[in-house]
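Support reply, case 0932

Customer input (verbatim):
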Amino acid sequence: MNSESRTDIALRKQAAVISLCVGLLMLLMKSAAYVLTNSSAIFSDALESVVHVGATTMALFSVMLSARPADRSHPYGHGKIEFFSAGIEGGLIVLAAFAIIYQASLALIVGRDLVQLDVGLGLTLIASVVNLLLGAFLVRRGKQTSSLTLIADGKHVLTDSYTSFGVVLGVGLVMVTGITILDPLVAIAVAVNIIVSGYKLMRVSVGGLMDESDQETLEMVTAIINRERRPEWINLHHLRVLRSGGALNVDFHLTIPFYWGVDKAHRFHHGVNDRIRAGLGNNANVMIHVDPCTFACCALCRVDPCSERRTDFREDPSWSAASLTGEAPYARAGNSSGRAAGQEP
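Our regenerated output:
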């Protein structure tokens, strides 16, 4: 394991511990606000903090597990636990939202006496600001260390912060107007917002577990490939990129001159692998399938000199994420014959 990845792991663990400690503190603060006020809106805010503490505990576990190196049972590492973590967090958020709606509906039917709203309002406002800062920190740290778990946790905390500000506004209106029905209505509005947030997290989780294509990551890898491209890289196709925790698994087919010997092709393969890994911060597994060129490649090939050339070079096609993930252009043209030395096309 390289020093950079060890640093990333340490930063992830530190962020997860900070999130858990702050989450416990916010839970105590919001619970105290609910006990003092008997407010449905503040109860909804406190219940979301309960979910946050549970989800952050899961996040800390997943960060520690994803840091384990690949082994015989998990040859691609343990990074996908982060998708499970995000999905569990999303599910807990949705369950909390329905519990809030149920509790708020009872308050609408039977009514509720509200007391000490000024104190509860102050505690909730403080918690809102703290969560805003924590959420921004977690998202930034998650992007810095490529951790889906921290990004998901940070977005949840930011949602918690926004809904807390909404609760502050709603409880403030109750204090000003004396219309107590606004309190459970605000709680229901908060619950709807929480459901949307939970759904988004579960959608990301399912996409990751199903190895859904990540266009942003594909574009990043494509940019690195174009930056490192050499004339001997005659064509690159069938590019696939999978993210597993903080690591990337990249594989593609690379077309090279068919007349190269095994030793030269092997050394070239390692050079390409090293260039791609270096561009990705050496935190990637790169698998390259080497293909021999065909005479149909000549018009697209910049290798010079080439004693086997049959057609003059005509164009240097651009390599985009869309083209690299597809078939080779000469294969699409249906002309892939004549690839052995001395064999006429």
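We compared this against your earlier run and they match. Two observations from our side: The radius of gyration is 28 Å. Residues 333-345 have pLDDT under 50 and may be disordered. Please reopen the case if you see a mismatch on your end.
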